[in-house]
Specification:
- The protein is mainly α and about 350 residues long.
- The protein has one domain.
- Helix content is about 60%, strand content about 5%.
- It has 18 helices and 6 strands.
- It has helices spanning about 10-15, 25-60, 75-90, 95-110, 115-120, 120-140, 145-170, 170-180, 180-185, 185-195, 200-215, 220-225, 225-235, 255-260, 280-285, 305-325, 335-340, 350-355, and strands spanning about 1-5, 140-145, 240-245, 270, 290-295, 300.
- It has a 4-stranded antiparallel sheet with strand order 4-3-5-6. Strands 1-2 form a two-stranded antiparallel ribbon.
- Strand 5 (about 290-295) and strand 6 (about 300) form a beta hairpin.
- Helix 4 (about 95-110) packs across helix 13.
- The radius of gyration is 22 Å and the shape is globular.
- Bound molecules: iron/sulfur cluster (SF4) (2 copies).
Length: about 350
């Protein structure tokens, strides 16, 4: 293992630790505010959903309202829903918000690279803070040797390929059958209970990921997240790019050190890597005004404009889905009570496993 952050000037080092007070810190604060707002939203949704599930378990009708936003944590169901929408011409009524959110994340990737990962995703947010904790505790993060790093980075593409392939080969009828299966109807509840009643194996895996993220920056995002891998592929088509102006660049290398994806920004004219999350940390760290910028065509996009665009696209999509009546599913309270109370019966097993 080698040091990830060595020989960095004191001011830049302080900024990387979140303690810098100038231009970089302004950008840093904007991103933390946006990420924090989305993380807080997830907590609120989680609490509302817990109340909904508890009431259903107790059979208390009418149930408190179910926050459809929790379907953000069902990306595979969302992907299936998107393909099913393409096949059927209408959006499924089981987890429509999951499909809307997957399509919004893909649209964001097409427009603004993997902005979903660095500005919205609560896992990315948590992961960044765990890495900061590691830097505060040990003065550094570690990065695996190159011979190990490269194959490990391929893992997320393997996982993504597996999921996408599994969804695509299902075919039209099986896809619809899965989406309307008892298993999928309570997939959100199962997912919630997975996190609140975690098994020893689940806890151990989570512990390894959390601890590993303290030592290795972005352990989950860099090596394992299939969702990020998919968005990275879409981001290749994005007109947004980090561009470096070699005429004004002083080759200080600060952008390389700031980049959480460890991209060699100072050696590129334009960053096209699918690992670029559009976090703009490299831009914030650059000491030369105009040497490095996020550009759409020839236009420079400021961090504040970028943040506003991310938030607006996301909120506009949400409000559009609500206004057109495709946000909430059509499962009634009575049906939820019946299904949640019987969720441990064989009928609610994974359809793929049942066929085996
Ligand atoms: S190149 Fe810049 S915008 Fe892209 S991930 Fe690295 S620091 Fe973030
Ligand atoms: S782009 Fe900016 S931060 Fe990167 S090497 Fe050039 S001057 Fe330094």
């Amino acid at each position: 293992m080698t040091k990830a952050t060595s020989s960095i000037p004191v001011s830049a080092r302080a900024w990387l630790d979140g303690r810098f007070g100038k231009r970089a810190d302004r950008h840093y604060r904007v991103r933390v505010v946006v990420q924090g707002a989305f993380a807080l939203l997830c907590v609120v949704l989680g609490v509302q959903f817990a109340r909904f599930v508890s009431a259903a378990q107790a059979g208390t009708l009418p149930l408190p309202s179910r926050p459809a936003g929790v379907e953000a944590f069902l990306p595979i169901s969302g992907l299936m829903g998107a393909l099913d929408w393409f096949y059927q011409g209408s959006l499924n009524v089981i987890h429509p918000a999951a499909t809307v959110l997957v399509l919004v994340a893909i649209a964001l990737a097409l427009l603004m690279r993997k902005a979903f990962c660095s500005w919205i995703c609560p896992v990315g947010f948590l992961s960044e803070w765990l890495a900061k904790l590691g830097r505060l505790a040990f003065g550094r993060n570690f990065k695996p040797w190159k011979w190990l790093d490269i194959p490990l980075r391929g893992l997320k593409y393997l996982l993504m390929g597996f999921f996408v392939f599994s969804v695509v080969v299902m075919g039209r009828e099986s896809l619809t059958a899965f989406l309307t299966s008892p298993y999928n109807k309570v997939a959100d509840v199962k997912m919630g209970l997975f996190f609140t009643q975690m098994s020893t194996v689940g806890l151990s895996i989570m512990g390894v990921l959390v601890l590993g993220s303290v030592f290795i920056q972005g352990l989950w995002c860099r090596y394992l997240c299939p969702y990020g891998a998919l968005l990275g592929l879409f981001s290749w088509a994005s007109p947004s790019r980090i561009r470096r102006d070699p005429a004004t660049c002083v080759d200080c290398g600060l952008c390389d050190k700031a980049c959480p994806s460890r991209l060699p920004v100072s050696r590129k004219l334009s960053v096209i890597s699918p690992d670029c999350s559009g976090c703009l940390d490299c831009v914030a760290s650059c000491p030369v005004k105009g040497a490095l910028a996020m550009k759409v065509g020839r236009r420079t996009v400021s961090p504040v404009a970028y943040a506003a665009a991310v938030a607006m696209i996301f909120l506009a999509s949400y409000m559009g889905a609500r206004a057109t009546g495709i946000w909430n599913n059509q499962i009634t309270d009575r049906e939820y009570v019946e299904r949640i109370q019987n969720m441990n019966s064989g009928e609610y097993g994974h359809p793929g496993m049942q066929n085996d």
